[in-house]
Write a structure and sequence with these properties.
The complex is a heterodimer of chains A (about 120) and B (about 110).
Chain A lengths: L2 E4 L3 E3 L5 E8 L7 E7 L6 E7 L5 E3 L7 E6 L4 E6 L8 E13 L2 E9 L3 E5 L2
Parallel strand pairs in A: 2-11
Antiparallel strand pairs in A: 1-3, 3-8, 4-5, 4-9, 5-6, 7-8, 9-10, 9-11
Chain B lengths: L3 E4 L2 E4 L5 E7 L7 E6 L6 E5 L3 E2 L7 E6 L2 E6 L9 E6 L7 E2 L3 E5 L1
Parallel strand pairs in B: 2-11
Antiparallel strand pairs in B: 1-3, 3-8, 4-5, 4-9, 5-6, 7-8, 9-10, 9-11
The chains are: A mainly beta (about 120), B mainly beta (about 110).
Chain lengths: ~120, ~110
């Protein structure tokens, strides 16, 4: 069965960096993209960016450009999200999600069909 | 960016009720609209994709409709396990992908 298993909770000081991992199993890793979505305490869902596990292409949310880097390691079927220069408002649960595309000619429908369990990142001095 | 606005923001209902949640996009997104359910402390779960296609394993009491800018998620007969927060998400423009602010469905 498809699983996305994320790394554990982190506590960081302002200005530090964090790297969250997302290990995939149960499917061909390079056949799907991975998006990262975060959720601040009591708030809604915010898309952070996407990476193709096939070729490493990325798209990042403009507000995070320059602070976020998404990578993959196809040898271990693991996706990574690194966020730098952390601020208190980066405190959130970070999720990875598999992006599936269903072809329905002439278009393709994209959605997030599997999610990791979430990783709480707390930024506090 | 495409803004997604859900209404209501919260809703109280009883088991057995029929419930409708609305999602409006700031521009036409065709049928590139997905719905998710999230329970406290859990990751979101996909319910509906492409505005009206039921994800495998999701009960048939959930249905979606709409196209263009106006969409609805309907639960035909609320069950106790349906009390959660629901989010719409557009995939028409992927830079960025955007979600609605969520609708919290509570027990009356």
């Amino acid at each position: 069965q498809v699983q996305l298993v994320q790394s554990g909770a982190e506590v960081k000081k302002p200005g530090a960096s964090v790297k969250v991992s997302c290990k995939a199993s149960g499917y061909t890793f390079t056949s799907y993209g991975i998006s990262w979505v975060r959720q601040a305490p009591g708030q809604g869902l915010e898309w952070m960016g996407w990476i193709s596990a096939y070729n490493g292409n990325t798209n990042y949310a403009q507000k995070l450009q320059g602070r976020v880097t998404m990578t993959t390691d196809t040898s271990t079927s693991t996706a990574y999200m690194e966020l730098r220069s952390l601020r208190s408002d980066d405190t959130a649960v970070y999720y990875c999600a598999r992006e599936r595309g269903v072809v329905a000619i002439p278009t393709t429908w994209y959605y997030f069909d599997y999610w990791g369990q979430g990783t709480l990142v707390t930024v506090s001095s | 960016d495409i803004q997604m606005t859900q209404s209501p923001s919260s809703l109280s209902a009883s088991v057995g009720d029929r419930v409708t949640i609305t999602c409006r996009a700031s521009q036409s997104i065709s049928s590139y609209l997905n719905w998710y359910q999230q329970k406290p402390g859990k990751a979101p779960k996909l319910l509906i994709y492409a505005a009206s296609s039921l994800q495998s394993g999701v009960p048939s009491r959930f249905s979606g409709s709409g196209s263009g800018t106006d969409f609805t998620l309907t639960i035909s007969s609320l069950q106790p396990e349906d009390f959660a927060t629901y989010y719409c998400q557009q995939s028409y423009s992927t830079l960025p992908i955007t979600f609605g602010q969520g609708t919290r469905l509570e027990i009356k």
